[in-house]
Amino acid sequence: MSTLDPALGTGKLADDTAQLDEVWSSPPGLYGWLTEVNHRRIGRRYIATGFALFLLAGLEALAIRTQLAVPENDALGPEIYRQVFTMHGATMMFLFAVPIMIGVGIYLVPLMIGTRDMALPRLNAFGYWIYLIGAITLYTAFILGVAPNSGWFNYPPLSRREHELSIGIDVWVVVVVLLEVAALVGAVGLIVTILKQRAPGMSLNRMPVFVWSILVMGFMIVFAMPTLMTTTIFLGMDRMVGAHFFDPAGMGDPLLWQHMFWYFGHPEVYIMFVPGLGMVSMVIATMCRRPVFGYTAVVLSLVATGVLSFGLWVHHMYATGLPRLGTSMFTAASMLVTIPTAVQFFCWTATLWGSRPRFTVALHYVLGFLLIFLIGGITGVQLGAVPFDLQVHDTYFVVAHFHYVLLGGVVFPLFAGIYYWFPKVTGRMMSEPLGKVSFWMMFLGVHAAFWPQHHLGFMGMPRRVYTYLPEMGWTQLNLLSTVGAFTIATGVGVTVVNLLVSARRGSPAGNDPWRAESLEWATSSPPQRYNFRFIPTVRSRAPLWDADWNEQPLVVGLRDDQREALSTSILDARPDHRAILPGPTLVPFFAALAASVPVVGVLFGLHWVPIGGALFFIAISAWNRPHHLPHRMEEESGREHRLAEQEREREEERQ
Amino acid sequence: MAMRSPSIRLAPSLAACALAGCTGTGVQDVLAPAGPQAARIAAWFWFSFALAVAVFVAFAAILFWGLFRAHRRHLRGEDTELPDKHGNRLVIWGGVVIPTVILLALLVFSAYTDRMISRLGRGPGEKPLTIEVVGEQFWWQVRYLDPEHPHREFITANEIHVPAGRPVRLLLKSRDVIHSFWVPNLNGKQDLVPGRTNDLVVQVDDPGTYRGQCAEFCGVQHAKMAMLVVAHPPREFDAWWESQLRPHAPPSDPEAARGEEVFMTNGCGTCHSIRGTLAKGTVAPDLSHFGSRRTVAAGTLPNTKGHLGGWIADPQAIKPGNRMPPVPLKGEELRALVSYLHSLK
Fold first, then answer.
1. In principle, which of A113, A460, A594, B97 could form an S-S bond with A616, CB 3.0–4.6 Å?
2. pLDDT digit string (tens) for B59-91?
3. A278 vs A42, A204, B216, B342, CA distance in Å?
4. Do B80 and A356 touch (CB under 8 A)?
């Protein structure tokens, strides 16, 4: 059999495909849209929403740069300016970077591990609705002129009620709580899917690097987000019911906020770029036509990065007057995290050395990532040193540093990913020439915008100032930085045009235009609603490059009259049972609406908390009514896991 | 908000700053140290910068040289696969060994720098001059402490006068939100956290004026919360201290006397204080000896009659969101008030 799908061409099985299509389709129209639980639809929504918010945050960045282009500018004024920079930070951190990485994970992971859907499809949909409600709430406040205005970090006491009466901070608290719920739910869905639904034979040490990076991200979210949730709820209680968590006059401590916030906030940065590192590994492997050098080292580095990132939050707090010895320990920890990144850098370099890469747009973005992220990493090491940090902390040097890290580590890998996976999602290729124009504008724009900011930091320009005096000598560099920001924006605009045009007119891609190694390329482009007619089995890290790929057994016997996925064991992915997955349902949508009633409701009065709680109880009861419970494998249909048996026998023969 | 701030020019005080020895390209320059601590930090930076350049150039060279070589070998039809042995060597040396050595060097030098900086003015028997700085939205209260002679203590605002060549210990407090005290030419920053007292020791090498600015976002006028550090030769500093302790003398000039009356009858004294008068407010800058200060509105404007008048007439136009209420005064009253404040030398 030469195709993955042995069913093609035979009458009986063709009928089954039609039935699968029907089982996996969703109702038409708005109702179908609201009831959708399929991972690729949800993932696409996450990505589209996240990208739209990225563009909005980009516009906010342009507003900031316009205000700062010349000294004593009054384009925005101090009150609007502080709202705009808060929105820029909060949107980029909470609404763009984490959700879009979760979205890419939700779209790609089931395809990459060879399964039909996420393990918890309704939870998945629920997460998206919560995220959307959070985004709408934040931007509604912005449009009404009451956006949060004390920075995305929102340090108390400035953010406490006695200093900031504006409802904007309450909106921030509410939105962050919603987004934490969304991120946690997304992370749990991804973790369970990755651990329990991998194709037979895909043991942990055969998982694609990107899946590993999503797994690491998922666990980081699970460990970091609850801390942020607790501390935002503390702030909400300080503001809304007169608690004193952060009030020194009431035995509270403003530094409690900073410890808890950065215990989340530092890993947050790594949460955003760990998936980026995973994407880079996939693109490099494909464009070099060979597996990434040092798979084990790369994966262990990802895990080490995730673990270490929890041990260095204090480097955001050197200036707060903590004991010196403790801060030195955090210097060492901050520098230590460099090692796993350096290992990955040299694994990629070794891969590139040992091949003749295809210089596609995706690889351009990867090389751009290597150079930009390296600069951000170097300044990061410098910032880890206490005395130097005390000079440049809260200056434009830091602004330059983290924009190099985040544009380098999140945006460039993401753009590499867009150009790389677009054919899979749409079935069409993106324009390579336009992509190169976009890349060079973004690459040069990043340096024009952010390199001068290192100098501005040395010249004493603090962050978050809405204006400055001409005598400070900051004018030319600020102007250059603004020009750079507009160059980046133009580059992004070119990619947006490319996306829109290619989605309609791009040349047809075929199933596997890059001749890549991983399973997502084994299905059609775009994939069928059920991803795989038969679940493939895996014997190596690069299944599609195996000489006998087309002879490998397939899983047959999954039912086609209801949504069903194969559940496998955690370590070595041996078939375990069949999981029945839920189809379209309104429950997640209603549950999300109900869950946001108490959260958003506190903006209007505390009585909404019990009301919303009751609504959510109803929603969650509907969610859990027995009919919807997935059950374990049944043998009633008389089919068996033929493939699983074959695979087991094969393993036994080998041993 | 389309509030047009008046053209703000600090030229006089900044020119003085430049003459007095602020060097470098900016007036707040980390890399133009005017004190031993900033000098040590700058030295650490230049060391790390040299390493950074070496690391970047080396990595870029390895990456592109390898790509070029692989391409050439491919053209010659040779196998481009990198033997595992070479790849492992690349990863172990480039990813582990060399970074570890570089990081250790940076770590040791950083710890040494930190120690040298922290030591200044804290040795046994050293008694640095102690000044308390309290951060406020959006200005600085400065209290000169003399524990042995409490009657010699006094309060000023927005200007910190210090003797050159001697360590000065700053006790940093905040009355409202978190601020951060930062004079880049002298030393790194230190936060002023409500409920805590932090301290920072600075030492200025040469007499001169150095500008500093709040570095932690503290509200709508964070951008305009600056201060000047004025370093005097030690003897001149003692004279300055004495001059600050001189009691308030009723103004001799009739316009200034009229101004004092305006000050006292318009409620200015509920927020501001002038030592030796009935004005004893504590929520706004102390105005004793205000006439000798270089700036108004916390480093925002040079202290000329015109700017002072403009500030009193409409403070919200200059720093929107600051805490000073508008004071409706007739032109004659305003002129008198300005003369009075300028007479407080």
1. A594
2. 999 999 999 988 888 888 887 777 888 899 999
3. 21, 15, 35, 66
4. yes
